[in-house]
Amino acid sequence: MTALISAVVTLVLLRWDLVPGYELPARPSRNTVEGAGPPASQPPLSSEEETNIRVYNKVSPGVVNITSIVVEFDFFLSPVAKPGTGSGAVLDRDGNIVTNYHVIASARELEVALPDQTKYSATVVGQDPPNDIAVIRINARSDRLNPVPLGESGGLRVGQKVLAIGNPFRLQNTLTTGIISSLGRTIQTDSGDRIENIIQTDAAINPGSSGGPLLNTAGEMIGINTSIVTTSGGSLGIGFAVPINTVRRVVNDLIKHGRVLRPSLGVDGYSITEHLSTGLDLPVDHGVLVARVYRGSAAESSDIRGASEVAVLSNERYLVGGDIISQVDGKDISSWDDLRSVLEGKRPGETVQITIYRGRSKLEKSVLLTEVPRQRGYRF
What we know:
The protein is α+β, with helices and mostly antiparallel strands.
């Protein structure tokens, strides 16, 4: 009986095999992954992807890695060399590179690695701590240097796409993208100075990215990435960049003069608070109360006057009786920071209109700004 059943099954299978057009299914290989076939072709790139690739290919050859060696002292006061890293952007074929001041601050040695992996010792051309900007220089063949084109930061808009290239965690030439999250921010540098008109972006900026370029979709540098808000040391999507209009002014001075040519009034004094205004019976509740006018300064030439007497308020002595600076070129001045911010955008040799109070009288002064002298104690 068993032999009969086996013969019938064999006959049926053979007859199915003989059906015209019918083929027995092939046994699947044990090495075959279900659904796998020949590799699919790369799908067409979106316009956004094409922009990312174009900008990266255009700019990344001009973004460098900077290693700084800082000497610190351990518990036993023995010197210990500690390396730090950052990014920079090539400015020209003379080897000038812009980066953040904090990337190169206190460095005993500086080394720059180009994207082609060639390395060079670098020297400091000039540095500007108030804007966290520095220029360093390497001696490299001009054909190895790929300057990053400078754009314009005056017409930027919130929501505009931006790209950042840097070397986070020593990963050279890393691209991240995002948008401009806000404009006109103010941040405080390690030196205690305020930088105005800062660009805020959500493009990822991580340790090692500082000093790298923030770019528009044309591949133009619109800022220098300088800091982030973080709780863990990594990016939280809140990064800041110094606008390129500030960078351009600063680096031009650093390359030509080794320093930034800053204008000065030549005064010192106090930011007016409600406490001072009420206690000293001042005519305004904001401004800068001039305590001292420096000899040979722009303020002295314009007959701006300093203190004439001493007053005591809450057990503190104040030099009073001087003029109160309330406006510069129509912009209200509430503190020393405001005065510095207004002057930061000016140049020595420019003339500004200053509104002052002398007693209860409101006066207008036309002041020709001079360069900040280099001696200590000279504030603005």
